[in-house]
Amino acid sequence: MKNNIKTIELFLKGSSFYRGIVLTIAVVIPLFLFNYIDIFKYAPSIVLGAFLSAPSDIPGSLKRKINGVLITIILSTLVTFIILICKPVFIVLLLVIAALSFLISMISVYGFRASLISFSGLLAIVLSLAVSKPDMQSILIHTGLIAVGGIWYLVVSLLAGWIAPKKDDDQLLSDTLLLTGKYLKIRAKLLSKPHKRDKFSKKALIIQTQISEKHETLRELLLEGRKRSGRSHSNERRLLIFISSVDIFELALTNTLDYSKIDTLFGVNRQHLKAFKKMNKVMGNHLITLSELLIKKGQLPDDTILNTTLDETLQAIQDYKNEITLPKAREGAITLRNLNEYQKQLLEEIKAIRRVLGKVKSSSKVLLKDQESQQFLTLQEYRFNIIVQNFSLKSPMFRHALRIAVAIVFGFAVGSVLGVKNAYWIALTIIVIMRPNYGLTKERSKNRIIGTLIGAVIASAIVIITENTTVYMVLAIISLTFAFSLIQQSYKAGAAFITLTIVFVYALMDPNAFEVIQYRVIDTILGAGIAVLANYALLPSWEYKNLDGVIFEVIQANNNYLQATKTLYHKKGTNHLEYKVYRKKAFLAMSNLNAAFQRLTQDPKSKQKESVLIYDIVTLNHTILSAIASIGSYTINNNTTNPSEEFDILIAGISTSLNNAASLLNKDEMQKLYKPKHIQWAQEKLIANYDTLSQARDKDIAAGNVAIDSDFLLHLREAHLITNQLIWLKTLSSNLRKVTVKYKAAFS
């Protein structure tokens, strides 16, 4: 019960519910005002304009937000005008719907905000079919009032932003910390549950993608906001939390362990890993608690358990050394020590977030220059050439645009010919459900139908209980608020509240509410069926056909990140900006590959071709990214020795393997592999260097010098980490090249 109350509180104080209230205000005020001044007939047009403008109002920079809503207003107004003047001739209307649906859907090639503008345009097409305007004057008045309604919504939205300017920032930061906390807890399970690693690895990939998406939006919000409004204390505090969350995410990726080696080292001594698993779990739970404070405020949680659990990890290292004894325990002890250092760094970042949330005056300041911050932003290009390049059947978006145009026309035509009441509801369901990939369309169809049925049952019960129009009006307003609030978080719940809203609105105008409910359910099922069938049978875009480019991008990004890490290792103490920019690009490329693989798993089993090979490619790229990040993170956080010749030779060999894997995908000429004897020599030299340090330590122990010099310990740890990570990277890059050969052969 306590958790349910907390969940409800977080939802009611969150930005989604706030945005739902904003839309409700923008819809309700014109209705009451125009009714009061006795010109209610004009209110629906203004309400429609406000409703059509709302989807493009998403978190982002103020400039993009305003531009997005203004473009939506222009598009919605123009589309409504065109549809209304074509309505008298049914054949012409169908042709115009087809053309507009296709062209508007193509706008989505310009990114997520553009896809929501496109959605509003499609929505305008369908909702125009519900309107009857007999002459040009009434059409012009209606379309003009839609534009007024859009401007009205923009004003209300900007006013709401002025009242609560950091609502979106706090929500996104909260969501990011929540996901990061969950990610750390999954990492704990990976450490201790070898038989379930495949299951937890797939969950971790999904969360990684979600975290990367949140980071991208936060970069735009916080870095653009900082540039626009200056370095205010509140902006700096949120930016500090964001930077720490990025560092935590990188550290977590950095410490992706060679689990086969972990199992070998601790197979029968797994109890020594329990403290480290507990530490990850405690830190994950602490981040989740901090994420809640960003929304509901309150006192910071006690951090005693964080410190005591960290002490337990130190004791676990000592217990392991006592049980196994040196020098036999050295390999495992260094591995545990590195794990302990990683968790210490995580803890420092968590404490940094605590200091910011506690408004500690000594919190560090953000020294990032505006010119530097711009390099971390992923800018969306809006060149006309982009849409021209996508005018090809090879483009998934082009195929989707054709598919949705045919589905909308077919659904509306069938409904009209069969005399279905409100046939445009079929087209509306298609627009809301249909997505470029089959799996998501199928999932949304299922949730839409279930949500509609739930809403229909609840509405039926209320209509049976009472015929009070005041009750219907109040419930319609409440349902609208929750529908818009929940549509992104839970599509099923959102669909239920949308159904409630529609039924209660119609119940205010038509006493036969049960007929409305009946047709609502029928039209939803028809629309959902058409959407799924069209995605499966009409120019389907199966994910396995689109993977080459995504895999190529992630291999190239990893290779660039590897070269930046090499530069970092050579030029210690210099500006880390270039390294961090390449790190961000590699993380984003990996996130895109993770997302593509998730879409592949949602396709029908018969269309998941070579999914095992593709999963191998995904996990290999992810592990390569983690191993590179491990070297980079260690270099930034520790004093390292001068790079050796063997270090550079191994990096060159790894880079060549990555380039050759990418060449297979891009059909470029392959590079000659480094001579095996050079690679082998470099590997043996690195191992020999580490063995020399180990033997020196063994002599000290034999002579009774148990205490170890701190500098010597750092050199030993560095040799262990660099040697193991480079040899691991060499194996991983070679395996990636071999798997890529098999992958290309399977589809040749």
UniProtKB/TrEMBL annotation:
Membrane-protein topology: Multi-pass membrane protein
Family (UniProt): Belongs to the YccS/YhfK family.
Keyword Membrane among record annotations: yes
Protein's name according to its UniProt entry: Integral membrane protein YccS N-terminal domain-containing protein
Major localization listed first in the record, in broad terms: membrane
Residue spans crossing the bilayer: 16-33, 66-85, 116-133, 139-164, 401-418, 448-465, 471-487, 494-509, 521-539
One GO location term (cellular component): plasma membrane
